[in-house]
């Protein structure tokens, strides 16, 4: 059990209140600064983003927007409509622009798709990103496909296909890699799902973390985006926040059949992006930026693999397999996840996510994001100190008894 001073216990209580107010999501940095200014966050390892990509975006933004005075255009002028930004992406993605829907973050696309196109029954793997079941409309049946802890919460494709055929939902959801555990389903298996479940009206594949996944030694990017044209029931959702480190901009896109895009545009999503998001999308499609980003993407993957390897050397935890930029960690020494998160934040300034609210997890879990190499080293050392100190305190308590 983690030990806290009386002053620290006050902070622990405030953290508990903040988390409860945030619901199934985690309070952000600005919320912390407003409501818990006595706590200094040195490393944000709760929110999932590539810090090297953020640095790259800032470099371009400073040079092209701030130093040139073009910031006035982004602030004073209306951004382009949804369809125009879709045209910007189309050539880069090699996708028909009429299949592209731009969202104010992936969360808006998730809500729009589920609210508008899920009619009677949806199947969702658990544990997973909670918004997929939170946004289900009243009257829609939710079927949970519980992933097995014994199988590291990975997807058994055969059992999954059989279960979908049995329940016949009109919508299924596959996050690949999955959140919160980072388990990855290979493209050949996802293709099997598409082929055998052709009767499902909506097959949602969320690729928000796909830039961190790979199937070759060269870490080449894999995606299902180009399969939408031949699979009209496929809906690919992509957040830009994680792999490009720009969560504050709120940028995402969905690829789906033209009929769905037109329905959404006619229902209030015509002008839903801001000027910063439009600038990002235009930058994202440029060859110079894309080339430099891909170098940083591979660098970040390699460092994340090293980070995960080092995490597995730490005592009293189990690190689950991941092909994302984060890991699911189970605390195996009787430590409460909420106490562990609080101790790391208070003593070391490291902000991570407790997974107490994740449906489908059995045990005490935290989710930890990979950061820069320097930050990861600090995280490793802090975790080791925190874990070992807890064991020492337990031994002292046993001797006292």
From TrEMBL:
Instruction: Report the enzyme's class at the first EC level.
Output: transferase
InterPro entries membership: Aminotransferase_I/II_large, NHTrfase_class1_PyrdxlP-BS, PyrdxlP-dep_Trfase, PyrdxlP-dep_Trfase_major, PyrdxlP-dep_Trfase_small
Q: Keywords in UniProt for this one? A: Aminotransferase, Pyridoxal phosphate, Transferase
* Cofactor(s) this protein requires: pyridoxal 5'-phosphate
This enzyme's EC code(s): 2.6.1.-
Per its record, what are the GO molecular function terms?
A: pyridoxal phosphate binding; transaminase activity
| CDD domains to which the protein is assigned, alphabetical | AAT_like (cd00609)
Domain (Aminotransferase class I/classII large): residue spans on this chain? 68-355
PANTHER family in alphabetical order: HISTIDINOL-PHOSPHATE AMINOTRANSFERASE, HISTIDINOL-PHOSPHATE AMINOTRANSFERASE-RELATED
Q: Name the family the entry cites.
A: Belongs to the class-I pyridoxal-phosphate-dependent aminotransferase family.
The name this protein goes by in its record = Aminotransferase
Organism of this sequence: Pedobacter steynii
